[in-house]
# Entry
Amino acid sequence: LIWSGFIQDRIDLTGVQITLGIRYDFIDPGAKDLANPYAIQLGQNGLLLASQIVSDATTSQISPRIGLAVPLGDRVILHGQLGRFVQAATTFGGGMNVALVSEGEAGVSAQAGDLFSFDVTGFYKSISHELGIVRNPGYLIPVQFPVLFPNAGVSSQYQFWPGTVDVYPKGIEIALSLHRTDRLAAQLNYTLQSVNTGWFNSLNQPQIGGGPIYVTQAYQSAVDFNTAHHGSLLLDYRFGKDDGGPVLEQSGINLVLAFHSGYAVTGDQPNRSWTTPGFAQIDGRIDKMFAIGPVTLDLYLYAINLLGTDNAVNVFSRTGDPSNDGWLSSPSGALEASQNGPQYVAFYKAVNEGKNSGNWGPPRQIRFGARLEL
# Structure
């Protein structure tokens, strides 16, 4: 059950515009979860004790927000805002983790003549209860009772759990705009930021009482929005009505470059993380519009990854490599390879590694389409 409500008002004073708001959120997961995944206790029959399963806690949050805008003449505006936010995310356990965010920003927007405008904004966030990862080894201490698994051959189990380290993204955002002139319009967006990955590691030892205790390791997940540099560049060249003659009239070309410097990925062991490679992709679109009575027909040719760039969008947690999952180099994988021979190895690589790993962005795609506007 999730419900919320808010009220907001804008107050215009001499030389300043104030926006005030307040929001209320209520979140009841209505689910069961482990009372403490760091120390799972079993009875002598090998089953979880009833005390180990509890109802997920409800969240009731009041979030105030305030925004300010101060015009300096008719071409420059100083702006800023402070706010509190709440967000629920589903977890593997069936429950919900609620992240609390406090955010503030301040910046300036300006119009430089009739052609250019820009905005520069600095921001700071505090995110608490960011998801962490609990790694449960596959055996109890003592080892009589495997937990949550029908056989003792399973080596580990991972689950999300609210983390113990807050995350603090901070940085600066820059937006530059060229208003359409001589048929050309452009937009550049760039963000430079720093985000702590918030690593936390603990190893829980067994204790006496309540049956055997499952030894667990807990560590904070590296946040996947930790990209130091990311942004986009848009170029649009377009002929208007009665412009360019019968061939080029109401036609145009659009190019979009999206880029980032890679983001953090949690490794399969505590305190191990990887960073994905840098990403850069250009998409393009050519279109022309035709007036057919009251209907406008827009024919277009759309290219995704126009240059056919190989972009890794993720890496394997075992190796930090987008193409090699490391299975064949592990003791279990090496044993299977020796038992099944080179044909098994070749088949495994063809299906699971290289460009079939699922860690690569889209290949070049060309699409043709038509759109009708009434």
Observations:
- The two ends are 41 Å apart (CA to CA).
- Residues 138-155, 203-212 have pLDDT under 50 and may be disordered.
